[in-house]
Amino acid sequence: MKTATITELKKELAHHSQKDLITLCLHLAKFKKENKELLTYLLFEANNEDAYINGIKEEISFLFLQINTKSYFYIKKSVRKILRLVKKYIRYSKKKETEIELLLHFCHELKKVKRPIARNVTLQNIFNRQVVLIKKAIPKLHEDLQFDFQLELDELE
After folding, report:
1. The whole model's pTM is what?
2. Which residue range(s) make up the domain with 139?
3. How far is CA 29 from CA 9, 26, 32, 40, 59, in A?
4. Distance CA 91, CA 110 (A)
5. Distance (Å, rounded) from C-alpha 112 to C-alpha 82?
6. Residues 6+ positions from 83 with CB-CB distance below 8 Å
7. pLDDT digits (tens, 9 = 90+) for 50-106
């Protein structure tokens, strides 16, 4: 089966009634958990970004508390899993402020892990990559926000 392009899908959806569109959205949400999560964000959480960010921060903090710190192997595995989750939430929002806030929180939590990340090259590289992403995103914001986030980033480093 050949997959249609976004333009083709947009044109085809324009010809459907509202009832048909609702049915299609619900059918799409049944197939993948990620589709359902995105639809939940768009319908319920997109209009209150601060609550969305705070909820994700709490989840990140909780997940960092659950990390098995007996060896760096388990720490790396858990950190990668948490980072995948954070990136998914960032993709839902598509807002630079949200991206920076979540990545800063991730880095703060990573720094607080019981075993120092400086002793492990992989963990240090994960941290450094996130800092680079934050630095790239900051110039795309309003000047006031740039200043605030830059202060927080300097404190982190």
Report:
1. 0.87
2. 47-156
3. 17, 5, 6, 10, 23
4. 21
5. 14
6. 106, 126, 130
7. 999 999 999 999 999 999 988 999 999 999 999 999 999 999 998 999 999 999 999
d(CA 127, CA 111): 8
- The verdict on residue 64 lying in a domain is yes
Taking alpha carbons only, the member of 125, 152, 124 closest to residue 137 is 152
Measure the CA–CA gap between 37 and 24, rounded to whole angstroms.
16
Query: How long, in residues, is the chain?
Result: 157
In this structure, are residues 118 and 124 in contact, taking their beta carbons and an 8 Å threshold?
A: yes
28 occurs within a structural domain: no
How far apart CA 138 and CA 148 sit, in angstroms, is: 10
At residue 55, the 3 state secondary structure works out as: helix
Query: What is the spatial distance between Cα 21 and Cα 121, in angstroms, rounded to a whole number?
Result: 49
Domain count, the chain: 1
Cβ distance 136 to 96 under 8 Å? no
| Assigned domain for 65 exists | yes
Which of 123, 92, 95, 96 lies closest to 110 in space, CA to CA? 123
Report yes or no on 139 lying in a domain.
Answer: yes
